[in-house]
Design goal:
It is built from three helices and eight strands. By secondary structure, the chain is of the alpha+beta class. The protein has a single domain, classed as Nuclear Transport Factor 2, Chain: A. Strands 1, 2, 3, 4, 5, 6, 7 and 8 form an eight-stranded mixed sheet that branches. The radius of gyration is 19 Å and the shape is globular.
Length: 169
């Protein structure tokens, strides 16, 4: 009988308490806040707003373009990208959120726009998934999986180059 009660209590603690497509859920807002902080890496890190490292766990991991990055390596990648562009911005949509008391999964679409000094715009479309954990009463991103769907370079002359997938000849 004790074993049955213990299993039931365990299931109640870890079972998802809800799934929704609402970007106003706390885990979805945490992911959006993380991307806001990402847009300041290498550019405006001292501006008002939280730092990226404060929004993720110390053991943060991201899978991006076939590479595994830890927190330090990912921040270096973004700082390098920021030095090549005048602005970095992301627009998140199509949220699917599943959460329990201490664990959340957020899947979403991410449309990124990166403007270079010449005014050309690199537009990337990703499908992403984030695992968040509750740390001291706040959602923190522990893991991010990023799948690039399409990337195009929109030139100032109006032409568009499809960078990924590469257009067949």
């Amino acid at each position: 009988m004790f074993k049955r009660h213990a299993i039931l209590i365990l299931l109640l603690l870890v079972a998802p308490v809800g799934a929704n497509a609402d970007s106003s859920s706390a885990p979805a807002r945490a992911v959006e806040t993380m991307f806001s902080a990402l847009s300041r890496i290498g550019n405006d890190e001292d501006a008002d707003g939280e730092r990226f490292a404060d929004l993720v766990t110390p053991d943060f991991t991201v899978f991006e373009v076939g590479t595994v990055y830890d927190l330090e390596a990912f921040e270096a990648l973004l700082a390098s990208a920021a030095s090549s562009f005048d602005s970095l911005s992301w627009s998140l949509s199509e949220f699917s959120v599943t959460e329990s008391a201490t664990l959340a999964h957020v899947a979403y679409r991410n449309d990124g726009r990166f403007v270079d000094p010449g005014g050309n715009v690199l537009v990337s479309y990703w499908l992403e998934s984030a695992l968040l954990v509750m740390v001291d009463g706040a959602w923190r991103v522990k893991f991010l999986q990023s799948d690039l769907v399409r990337r195009e370079l929109r030139r100032t002359d109006g032409s568009v180059d499809y960078v990924y997938p590469v257009a067949s000849e």
